[in-house]
Every structure is written in structure tokens, then in C-alpha cells.
Design a protein that fits this description.
Signal peptide: 1-23
Largest sheet: 7 strands, antiparallel
Protein name: Lipoprotein
Oligomer: single chain
Low-confidence stretches: 1-26
CATH class of the largest domain: Mainly Beta
Keywords: Signal
Distance between the termini: 80 Å
Length: 452
């Protein structure tokens, strides 16, 4: 019986040739046992839908051939999935191996002749996420292939994030950071081809390959305040890292980047090159975008001076004397951290403080020694003093209290180019639980070095 979808001829592809596997009378694509009506038309419509996805750079080609859409066989006969799979493509941020974009099919009519379907919008995987069918793929023109096809050619908008296996690239020096994320470009290459686990990757005509080695350090995880609730105003949002190439900006997926370590980013640019930049967006309260040229490291546009410096070492040790009543002890600065934004307590909530232009926030993490074991950090915080090199006192911004006599951290606003401060405790009287009114006094200030 003649039908709209015509007769299909299935073939098995090999590396060298294609051999017919079935006669036209035996082939039928079915869903739930019912023939698929106008299967060829469904492929054509899905390919038209996917052309928009390609033009906007949501996925990249992996070879010179046009991207095509396929049915996925799910059974022993010719039963197929209720989706078309379009590709092979590469989702920016994934590995070089091919990805596939699923296009759902919605049943709109069922009759004795078969099931009629409508093409729905493509379900483009999120940046860095992969999507692939299981089993063989088949087209109505008789071709059948496997979904895993190895590495193809990298087309426009190709971007893969790969483990760093120590490949040789030229040295480079560029960095960008905010208070949660620090990224340094330590290597850069313009290869004609790039080896991967799945095969050698080459660029198609009209584009060229580039490789970046990125060294990544996340800072947010080490700060317990980022997990505290409730918050007043904007919560600290994860920053967004992107790579900007001529005509496109690719966001690098956070889950493809390590907490600490290096990765390789392999991508394409138009033939002849052009400006490339690493972009870091601090999201949320008083958002900030920073751009640096790759691979030179030149800052593009305005930049917060403090974020062109390092945040400081993971640990230090600077102490100053303090007496609380009859107890004589000390306050130790166990970490000094410079940045633009820090979380501080506000009444019974937390909020994110931001430094004024030309200023920086200095956070001192504190530990008391030989002091009474009582809660009272909200009372003692106002006695902590940071003195600047010109002899003036740095404004106190806030603190995070914990459950001890002294704050767990105190935050002060300082000039963005400050290289050292003096930290001490001034005299005063505080009211503490169980102890009542108690005299507090300090001693010689400790010098906190900030030359980083």
C-alpha cells in the first residue's frame, strides 16, 4: 500500500562502503507499533529548527557536512524513539566527542494508517552538558549510523573544556578574579591540530584552533558565611566565567571547571584571528564585569584595583595582646584577605558589603587565646582597630560573630593599594553574659602585611 512516507531502504554503513540490508517492502518505521506518517517531512522540519540553534552559536558543527536529523531505533524491528536526534554537533563546554540535540515529536493524530507527529522546539543541552541517543540512528533515505562517531572537525563556535594532561603550550600570563573565583591563563597555543582521547581534532575551513590552559581557584567554598541564612538583600551568586572570541561570547560551564587545578579550553576563532578576552561577571549585589585580553593579560575597560591584586595567603599569624577582666590573652590574625565584597552580620541576618570605588575590604580572620569562654563577639567587635600607614583608622564595616568572645572575622574598608596595617584592641567596657560589665584593654599593635 502506497503511503506519504514512501518506502525506506535500510543500509549498514562501514568505513569503506554502504551495503543494502533490507528491501523496500520490509522497512517500516513505527512508534508503538504504528507506522510513522511523513517521516521524511519530520526530518526536514527538525533540520530547519536546528539551523537557528547553529546560527546563534548554541551548538557547533563538527564537520563540513550539514547537520541532519535521525530517528533512534529502540527495538528489534523498526520501532523508533519519540524524538529526532540532530547532529553530530558539539555543545560548547563539553568534550570534543559528538553531541546530539533531541527534538521531541508530539503525536497529533492516530488512525489505521499510522501516527501523525509534529516537530517540537529542539531541547538544546545546557552549556557543558551532553545529550546522546542509545543505539543506532536511522534516516528515511536508508542510512543507519552509530551515535558515537569519534572526533570530527571543529566548526564555528566550537569550544571544549578538557582535563589538563600536561600538553605542551606556549607560556602566557593573564588573570581575572573576584571574591569567589580566581582564574589565571598560564598557556596559549595556535595548533593546526590537537590530540584528544577520541582522536585528532582539526578545524574546518574558515576557522582556526586555539588552546588555553586555565589555572582555577575557587574561594567561596572556604567561607562558611556563604552558606548562612537568612540574608538581607542579594545572596552571594556564583560568578560567571566566559571566553570572548570575534563574534561570540562562550560561557564556560562551572561544573567543567575544578575547584583547584588546571584545564584546557580548545576552541575555534574565525580564520585570521582577532581579539580574544577572558570575561568574569560578578553577579548579584553591585554586579561587576571584568575583561582581560588573551593571551597578553591587558586589562580591557575599567577595573577594580583591589581585584588586580591577589586575595592573600591561606594563612598568616599576627598577634596583639588583650586583657578581659583578670584574664590576659591575645588575639591572633590567622588570615588576612583583600577583596571587593565580603559577607557581614546585620542584626540577625547576613548581608554582602561592597567596597567604595578606590577602596578595598580587608577581612581579618581572628582567633582568641587565653580569654574567657563566653559568647560576646557583638560587644567586643567595636573595640577592634585597624590603623592605616598614615595613622588614621580604617572604617569598621562589619563582622561575622560565631559563638565566642571575639568575632570570627572583622571587615574594614582600606585604600585599594594598601600594603600593611596595624591591628590592635582599644580599651573599653563591655557587658558579657555571665560576667556582666567587664573592662577590656589592649597592647602593642601587630603589623599585618598586605604586600600581595
Amino acid at each position: 500500500m502506497a503511503t506519504r512516507w514512501g518506502a525506506l531502504l535500510l543500509v549498514v554503513l562501514t568505513a569503506a562502503c554502504a551495503t543494502p540490508a533490507f528491501s523496500t517492502e520490509r522497512v517500516r518505521l513505527t512508534i508503538e507499533g504504528m507506522p510513522v506518517l511523513d517521516a521524511t517531512g519530520l526530518q526536514v522540519l527538525a533540520e530547519a529548527e536546528l539551523s537557528y540553534t547553529l546560527s546563534f552559536g548554541y551548538v557547533a558543527r563538527t564537520g563540513p557536512e550539514a547537520v541532519s536529523c535521525w530517528f533512534a531505533r529502540t527495538g528489534r524491528a523498526f520501532e523508533v524513539d519519540t524524538r529526532l536526534w540532530c547532529g553530530p554537533v558539539q555543545v560548547p563546554g563539553t568534550a570534543p566527542a559528538p553531541d546530539w540535540v533531541p527534538v521531541p515529536l508530539k503525536a497529533v493524530d492516530r488512525s489505521d494508517g499510522g501516527v501523525r507527529l509534529e516537530v517540537q522546539p529542539p531541547q538544546v543541552p545546557a552549556t557543558g552538558a551532553r545529550s546522546a541517543p542509545v543505539g543506532k540512528l536511522v534516516r528515511t533515505d536508508g542510512r543507519e549510523i552509530a551515535a558515537d562517531r569519534g572526533v570530527g572537525e571543529a566548526g564555528p563556535d566550537f569550544l571544549a573544556v578538557l582535563p589538563d594532561v600536561g600538553a605542551q603550550v606556549d607560556a602566557a600570563s593573564a588573570f581575572v578574579r573576584d571574591d569567589q573565583l580566581e582564574v589565571r591563563v598560564t598557556g596559549y597555543a595556535r595548533p593546526a591540530a590537537w590530540p584528544t582521547e577520541a582522536g585528532e581534532l582539526r578545524a574546518e575551513h574558515g576557522v582556526e584552533l586555539r588552546v588555553l590552559r586555565l589555572d582555577v581557584t575557587r574561594h567561596g567554598e572556604v567561607d562558611s558565611a556563604f552558606g548562612q541564612t537568612p540574608w538581607r538583600g542579594w545572596l552571594p551568586q556564583p560568578p560567571e566565567l566566559s571566553l570572548e572570541v570575534p563574534g561570540r561570547r562562550h560561557r564556560l560551564p562551572a561544573d567543567r571547571l575544578p575547584d583547584r587545578g588546571s584545564v584546557l579550553v580548545v576552541y575555534t576563532v574565525p580564520a585570521g584571528g582577532g581579539a580574544e578576552a577572558l570575561v568574569l561577571n560578578t553577579v548579584g549585589a553591585k554586579s561587576l564585569e571584568q575583561r582581560v585580553e588573551v593571551p597578553s593579560g591587558q586589562v580591557l575597560g575599567a577595573a577594580a584595583g583591589v581585584l588586580r591584586r591577589g586575595p592573600g595567603p591561606e594563612a598568616t599569624s599576627v598577634s596583639t595582646p588583650v586583657s578581659v577582666g583578670t584574664a590576659a590573652g591575645s588575639v591572633e590574625v590567622v588570615r588576612a584577605r583583600l577583596g571587593r565584597q565580603r559577607p557581614v552580620a546585620f542584626s540577625d541576618q547576613y548581608e554582602l558589603a561592597t567596597a567604595a570605588p578606590g577602596k578595598a575590604l580587608l577581612e581579618l580572620r581572628l582567633r582568641g587565646h587565653g580569654l574567657p569562654a563566653v559568647v560576646g563577639a557583638w560587644a567586643t567587635a567595636g573595640l577592634l582597630v585597624v590603623e592605616l600607614p598614615d595613622g588614621s583608622r580604617a572604617p569598621f564595616v562589619g563582622a561575622r560573630y560565631g559563638g565566642e568572645l571575639l568575632p570570627a572575622a572583622a571587615v574594614f574598608e582600606v585604600p585599594e593599594d594598601v600594603r600593611s596595617v596595624r591591628f590592635s584592641v582599644m580599651a573599653g567596657v563591655v557587658t558579657l553574659p555571665q560576667l556582666g560589665a567587664v573592662a577590656v584593654s589592649g597592647g602593642e599593635a601587630g603589623v599585618v602585611g598586605l604586600d600581595f
